[in-house]
Design goal:
The structure is a single chain. The protein contains five helices and four strands, in the order βαβαααβαβ. The protein is α+β, with helices and mostly antiparallel strands. The protein folds into two domains: 102 residues, Alpha-Beta Plaits; 66 residues, no CATH class. The chain has a four-stranded antiparallel sheet with strand order 2-3-1-4, covered by helices on one side. The longest helix has 27 residues. It is elongated, with a radius of gyration of 26 Å.
């Protein structure tokens, strides 16, 4: 019988805290708590709501998204690529004059330029969103919380990561309690 030489990772059973999760009952409570967390100077935190809450971006102090600029650059790249490709093909690669049409007839270029502009824009939007959101992230420690499932139904959450420079367990808990959190818990994950 052959023996297999497999290395296995052994769990030490130790857990370390990774974030503090606060639960709120209404969007208004979560919005005001986000303002308090922002004003306290935290940098590594997020809000989790079952639907978009008007004003949450401002309450969190988030800048405008860069995705629009990424899409605009990709759209321009698509348009210029299409125009350059058509010009090269009509002037150098296959220079046929049909029906007296000049090599760079704009009406005949419109469909290809339009299609490549849309294609490059779509790729810019999808891959730009993945990059800006740091996706794919297949698992996040916040999913260890049983209560967090309500974030897709009727509860509102704020999570503050332990790695944040401002994080102090007692002060952070006191801040969230003063913001009227209905439940606060520390999320832990196993140390490998």
């Amino acid at each position: 019988m052959a023996s297999a030489n497999h290395e296995s990772t052994v769990s030490t059973g130790e857990k370390k805290p990774v974030l503090m999760l606060a639960e709120f009952n209404t969007p208004g409570e979560c919005l005001h708590a986000a303002e308090k967390v922002r004003d306290a100077g935290y940098a590594r935190w997020d809000t989790h709501t079952p639907f978009p809450v008007h004003g949450m971006d401002g309450a969190m102090g988030l800048p405008d998204s860069k995705l629009g600029w990424i899409v605009a650059v990709m759209a321009l790249t698509g348009f210029v690529s299409a125009a350059a490709m058509i010009w090269y093909m009509n002037v150098y690669d296959y220079p046929l004059i049909i029906g007296g049409k000049p090599p760079l007839a704009l009406p005949s270029m419109a469909p290809v330029c339009f299609e490549l502009t849309i294609l490059f824009s779509a790729f810019g939007a999808v891959f730009g969103m993945f990059g800006l959101n740091k996706l794919p992230r297949h698992h996040h420690p916040i999913f260890y919380s049983d209560r967090f499932a309500a974030a897709t139904d009727d509860k509102f959450f704020i999570s503050i990561e332990v790695d944040d420079a401002k994080y102090d367990a007692k002060k952070t808990r006191a801040l969230l309690e003063s913001a009227k959190a209905s439940h606060i818990e520390i999320i832990e994950e196993e140390v490998a």
